[in-house]
Predict the structure.
Amino acid sequence: MNYNIKVVLLFRTFLLLSILSSSTKMFAQASIQGIPQFANGAWTIRYNQPAAQEVFEVAPASDGIIIKKKPAATVAEDVYVFCHFKLDKPIKELSFEYRPEGKAVQVPITLYDAAVNVLWQYDGSEKAPEKVKLKNLKIRGQLVFKVRQDKAGTSAGDWSHCIRKLKVTEDKQAPVLAADGYMLIDNVDELRRLAGEDNVKVRLKPGTYRIDKALFRHFIEFTGNNSTWDLKGVKFQVDTKLFSQFGVAPGGGDALMYCAMTLSGNNIVMEGLQVETYGNKPGIQSRNKIFNITGIGVTLRNVEVTTEGSNPWGYGSLFGISGGDVRKMNGIRIGWPGKDVKLIGCRVHMRAMGHAIFVQGAENTLIEDCHVDGLLRKTDEILAETSGYAFDRDFKAGGKNYIEGVIVGEDGKILPGEMVSLSEDGIRIYPEASGGKVTGTATIRNCTVTNMRRGICTGLNAIGDLVINCQVTNCVASGFNVGANDKLVNCRADAKYAEALSVPYVRAQHAEVELEILDSRGGVANNLLAKINGENHHIKLTTANPIFIPAPMVIELSTTKGYGGPRNGSQPSAKNIKLINKTPAPVIYLPGTEKVEVESIGRIDDHSTVLEN
């Protein structure tokens, strides 16, 4: 990106240093720090949204920075720029010369440390100091200058802030180390300061800590490489008001999404942390999440997440999954450019609308020994409400006939006798990230999911995923959603509220499934045990006890029933299917079924040929 930097003669020498600067350290994974952004030596510049780029002209140098208004810049909303200066050592003092020009008093500048503490600011309430000296500091990681231009002040005329001759004094005090070499800290401020450090091993004192301040949409950013975080016995309580603090930015991309913690550095290990949200305030956008992992070789081990703070809460997907006033609070996202990421022994308790664990654009992901639970609700309870979100909308949902596992009326009316998951999918593999980056293969092993919309959903990813020894129960759209080249080995699911197995996609080929059907008695609103569409699949269904399969349950090939339709009137197909059915459920061939090889305990009903009158 080209920046046309025009400054007064007084600063020409200063800008020459800026252009020639090739200073020291830069942030790991800087590409997720902000959109748009640019880096110059120790500086990383990011904006709260693309419109801000048209307002601020920024010139970083090795010992300072100039931030000024672009000529004739106007905005229709508040914008601000963050200028991050990477520190390569701890400091105890800093000083710099400061010179404001024009209407700078109307555009305040604030200096933060990495822990979001205000170190200095100039807002025009007092005379601007020519030199700033700050002593008795305990700072590491980064310094952050923030300039905000509110929409009311864009016509205030030209202004500039000039920071120069930035000097720091190193803090040579040795950190407290445990016998095993871990750095011992006892507060979140110090954790934030260390989060950008490479090659550190940090242990935070067990206890409960509030996360109620942030510099950006990613509240704590672990950008350092080769670092280990021992957070066993630590609980973070994240204030949901932070998910609205920085406004909504147009467009997509990781940096525009809100998350409590992002792990974008490479070879990070984080273990033992508990995270929960509080305040129950829905965010300002629908893509909120607790963890966002985009680094390479990141391991998240024995982490526990509890979510709240979505809208509308209590109705699942009935009123939509995005747009309008839908606001999600997801659990753990693994996204591009993430690679070789491992989730080991993690637990996600969904008490908000959203996905528990999902992958977008990452390669070679391992999800092992992870456990997800949500909440279910009967539509009868919703229809009994005498006030609230559904009542105000005359109990009309955001669609008709079928909404993510729930049957509704032709007019969109919520019907009695249905079961709704209040969250989305337990473990979901998306086919790609924004920008078209294709998701690589994921391995899901020894995981359990209960009370979610779909249990484990790999069917959307065309590359194929491996699911081993996983169990899904009480899901309302499907237990296992399977697609092209997926392989399920020694897995288990029930069909109480939706089909245990859904292979819904006509174009999907070469799925291999070994699935044991668990006790499916006592369910509601479902008589479909398995749905099989597509081509060249090998599927084996078993059960430990035939009485686990209620008499109305069926297995259908070439079907529109259940998750995934199709619901546009087209006829699905199932071809070259090899099915071994060790359950008493009947197998039904519907039109579109061809060249199938079925071995079944239950009867086989062939309706594949449509008779003409």
